[in-house]
Design goal:
The chain has 2 domains: 2-220, Alpha-Beta Complex (Spore Coat Polysaccharide Biosynthesis Protein SpsA, Chain A); 225-382, HAD superfamily/HAD-like (Rossmann fold, 3-Layer(aba) Sandwich), CATH 3.40.50.1000. With 383 residues, the protein is α/β, with parallel strands linked by helices. It is elongated. The chain has 12 helices and 20 strands. Strands 1, 4, 5, 6, 7, 9, 10, 11, 12 and 13 form a 10-stranded mixed beta sheet that branches. It has a 6-stranded parallel beta sheet with strand order 17-16-15-18-19-20, sandwiched between helices.
């Protein structure tokens, strides 16, 4: 995958806190914001990034050079402001792929880029938000962007998340000036012809364009992210109350799944209901013995598990830690300093997903196993 990052912003609204660097170079805990953005792209397998630079471009070039985290870094230089559209058009000449992602250099939206690329069509990543007036609303119907509204207060809706998936030759069929706005002069003007797909996401989003959100980024971008796994049915085959090493058989997908998330810098945390302890079917010591075996098997494969949280209670005890209650998720989020919007939860029961959702986790995956799907009031994907 390849990306163009619009990194030539002046940062006018940030002048009160950052005045001597391009906006994407605004420091977050002694590192430029752009470094966090590139870290995210590297973790998702990008191999080439084109930085569209202008204002104080030497600051960016000196810092990132031509290689970063295994990615090739190329510079598309504006000698005068070309507008977002003119800037993208110029940068496209450095792209090799048929489709290219375009990102704003002052926005972090941690979508699944490979998933968005499956659309194989011009697309915009849209973020679901509540109670907003800073952004215009994107109107979507049956997966297609129908209109872009002006900024006004919206109770709930989608905004343009600042990530575009564009064909390299997208501008070739249109007569456009050298300087133009990608949003106003192209996407909005030709919206009916373009048939823009909407990639809907509730993933973590922050725009550092104003001092308040820039300050918020100082802490949020330092937080970690985690892959939350149920145990029985996800890590091991579920035969019902698995409590001996002899019974413990790893699922055929767990190793590759975990390695994928490790490469994307996720911690791995296990959250499991173990009602068999409360029911007297096996002891806490039995569980802990199996747990040590599981941890050692992961460690032997170079896959560290950061923590295991378990509920030992019988359902009749109505505890706060048994899924679908979110108690263990909330404890893990606090103890590991996690950002819920950045976390992923995978389970084979709806109660797994309900608990994660109640803890503020939106990236939810259901693995069909011994338990059926049931109606819930939130979205999830199946794996």
């Amino acid at each position: 995958m390849q990306a163009i990052i619009l990194a030539g912003g002046f940062g006018t609204r940030l002048k009160s806190v950052v005045s001597d660097v391009p906006k994407p170079m605004a420091p977050i805990a002694d590192r430029p914001f752009l470094a966090y953005l590139l870290d995210e792209l590297a973790s998702q397998g990008f191999r080439k990034v084109i930085l569209a630079v202008g204002y104080k471009k030497e600051r960016i070039e000196e810092y990132f050079q031509h290689q970063y985290q295994g990615m090739e870094i190329v510079y598309s230089v504006e000698t005068e402001p070309l507008g977002t559209g003119g800037c993208v058009s110029k940068a496209m000449s450095y792209a090799d792929d048929d489709f290219v992602f375009v990102l704003n250099g002052d926005t972090m939206f941690r979508i699944d880029f490979a998933e968005m690329a499956k659309l194989h069509h011009i697309a915009i990543a849209c973020k679901k938000m509540k109670s907003f007036d800073r952004y215009g609303e994107v109107k979507i119907d049956r997966g297609i962007v129908r209109s872009f509204s002006e900024k006004k207060y919206v109770e709930e809706g989608y905004i343009n998340g600042g990530i575009y998936y564009l064909p390299k030759r997208i501008f070739s069929k249109y007569v456009l000036p050298e300087k133009f706005s990608l949003e106003k002069d192209f996407l909005e003007k030709y919206i009916s012809k373009l048939q823009i797909s909407a990639y809907l996401s509730e993933d973590y989003f922050i725009d550092i364009g104003i001092p308040e959100d820039y300050e918020r980024a100082q802490s949020e971008l330092l937080k970690k992210k985690a892959l939350f796994l149920d145990r029985d049915g996800i890590i091991n085959e579920d035969y019902g109350h698995v409590h001996t090493v002899e019974q413990f058989r790893f699922t055929d997908f767990i190793w590759d799944l975990c390695r994928t998330y490790l490469l994307r810098n996720y911690e791995i945390i296990v959250i499991t209901n173990q009602a068999g302890i409360g029911k007297g079917l096996y002891s806490l010591q039995d569980f802990l013995k199996v747990n040590r075996y599981m941890l050692q098997q992961f460690s032997d494969r170079g896959i560290p598990i950061a923590d295991v949280y378990y509920c030992p209670h019988d359902p009749s005890e109505h505890c706060h830690c048994r899924k679908p209650e979110p108690g263990l998720f909330l404890k893990a989020i606090s103890e590991h300093d996690l950002l819920p919007e950045d976390c992923v939860a995978i389970g084979d029961k709806m109660t797994d997903l309900q608990a994660a959702h109640r803890a503020g986790i939106h990236k939810l995956y259901f693995k069909q196993g011994n338990y059926p799907e049931e109606p819930v009031d939130f979205s999830y994907r199946k794996i």
